[in-house]
Amino acid sequence: MNDRTSARRPGKIVCVGRNYRAHAAELGNDVPREPLLFLKPPSSIIHDGEKIVLPEASNQVEYEGEIGIVVGRRLKNASEDESRSAVASVIAINDVTARDLQKSDGQWTRAKGFDSFCPVGAPIEPPQDLSTLTVTTRVNGVVRQSGTASDMVFPIPFLLSYISRIMTLEPGDYVATGTPSGVGALVSGDLVEVTVATPAGAASTVSSGV
Ligand code: MG
What we know:
Blueprint: H1 3-7, E1 13-17, H2 21-26, E2 36-40, E3 45-47, E4 61-63, E5 65-71, H3 80-85, E6 87-94, E7 97-98, H4 99-105, H5 109-113, E8 118-120, E9 134-139, E10 142-148, H6 156-164, E11 174-176, E12 184-185, E13 191-197, E14 203-209
Parallel strand pairs: 1-11, 3-8
Antiparallel strand pairs: 1-2, 4-7, 4-12, 5-6, 5-11, 9-10, 9-13, 13-14
Bound molecules: magnesium ion.
The site of magnesium ion has 6 residues, from loops.
């Protein structure tokens, strides 16, 4: 960890669970009535080309490709319009999860918080309509997840507004907006790539060896 990497860390990473119907269903869960929020520690961040480290405590580490938002302006009790205009950039995020520990712990902090469990891609400019963003996850070159923000249970401006009524979003904070269906386990030797793209062809990709 060098100083330059530390300086690029967000103050917090706010994550949304079960924000796509098909993914909630594949894990046997209902869609929540309100956004289901949790946090990942900034120390879990790695960048493109860095390795996901499988912890000894888990036998089931899974990828979750997600559309990530980088907040550009302070948001507190913000409207959806204010929230939309405060999106500085969009990034690919892999919300790596120790699924066995997520189930056994109840609380998600350990399962989601190991070092290297938050690969992030380089920022791209957000499209005018955030619901046009897509996310694709490939493992060893094979597409395993394919989603669009238009399928989210809670759209991105709603999520940012909702979060801002609980905790102030600061410039540089990340919001991970949930994963579509198709999650699965990673094993040593895998290569997992998450790509978030705009209709205009801009793309943020984070590629991680395991
Ligand atoms: Mg997730």
